[in-house]
Amino acid sequence: MADSSASPSVKQTLQGYHQLVSADLDRTVRFWLDHSVDDQCGGFFSCLEADGTVYDCTKYSWPMCRQVWMLARLYQEVDRFHQPHVLEAASKGGEFILQHVQEASSCRCYLSLTREGRPLKLQRTIFSEAFFVMAVSELYRVTRHARYKERADATMAKIIHWVRVDSTELGFSVAPPTHVSSLSVPMILLMLIGQMETVEPARTAEFSALGDWCVQQISRHVVDRGANRGGLAVMENVGQDGGLLPGCSGRLMNPGHAIEAGWFLLERAAKTDSESLAALALDIVSSSFRRGWDSRHGGLLSFIDLEDRPPTQLEWDMKMWWPHNEAMIAFLMAYKHTKDDGYLDKFGQVLDYSVKHFVDPEHGEWFGYLSREGVVKINAKGGQWKGFFHVPRALMMCEAMLQELLQTC
């Protein structure tokens, strides 16, 4: 590990990054509090135009639950957001999802609802449920209201059952293929474990074995192709034994997911004091960024085919907001762990691209979808998938890491 002392120029760089990130976080929080809160029916709108105008009143559980989590986490951990109106918005959003998002007869959660909270669609995955757990567990952390803990614990137990034992309750007419392992499943479960450990540190030992299982499952997606073929590659889909799958699905790589998996593992390595896991995580972050960064136009590609064959995803060359958020977190976390200036340079590279192309200094928040050339393609700040989560989470985490780094300079 490199020398922990920082040169004056590095300190100035960190100070500049901190100022930029903090100002962007303030603008982002203000944008969503000003425009997304539904005072009439409860919950949050996520379909917002560039200036915050609501263009669709449909409510989506992914962004809505994640907004509850984000507001509660900001209230809990960032002093300037420890304000009554922030907690009020989180709590009102929490009451809406408690009343409307979860199916009455099970722990399953609706993907979308009407403005008033009537269910529209139920998905056959664990992700709506996972974000529901994030939201209500964080509200329990802030308020200590038992009803939040009860719903979080019950839903978490169901998710573990669906992942580890039997997923047929999710609604498949027949069991889904058991020979395919999707990277997103152990990733989301590892994230939930970290969340539950943060809410109740006394339960860390309870989740230890499950955390190890998630790390093992994620590691099975890592393929070493050798130095002459780009080093490590993190595959989106593999066989249950880690073997490569045939066809497009087996060659698919999602750079944003891979980088996010890298910082999940680096965070886990810090908790478990595992330098071998940290080394793997750092390699994953660097190799995934190297494969995903567009050398011609800058920015991270959305999908790549490992053999450079035609991708099947029509949006493969678009530049989306969230992979850049994950890369910001990953590289700053890597720098914090190693003090290797190369990681700080990469953080600056991603931040510079993002400020130039995604950030809207006039209204606040980021645009979500760019062309390969970096031109805004959808003039909106939110929708079914983009809400108050990836941008503020990255800014909040990076602000905290920069503060810690500056304190040790």
TrEMBL record:
Pathway: Amino-sugar metabolism; N-acetylneuraminate degradation. It catalyses: an N-acyl-D-glucosamine = an N-acyl-D-mannosamine. It comes from the Eukaryota. SUPFAM superfamilies: Six-hairpin glycosidases (SSF48208). This is N-acylglucosamine 2-epimerase. It is an enzyme of class 5 (isomerase). GO terms for molecular function: N-acylglucosamine 2-epimerase activity. Belongs to the N-acylglucosamine 2-epimerase family. Its EC number is 5.1.3.8. It holds the Pfam family GlcNAc_2-epim. PANTHER family: N-ACYLGLUCOSAMINE-2-EPIMERASE (PTHR15108). GO terms for biological process: carbohydrate metabolic process. It comes from Elysia chlorotica. Keywords: Isomerase. Homodimer. Forms a heterodimer with renin and inhibits its activity.
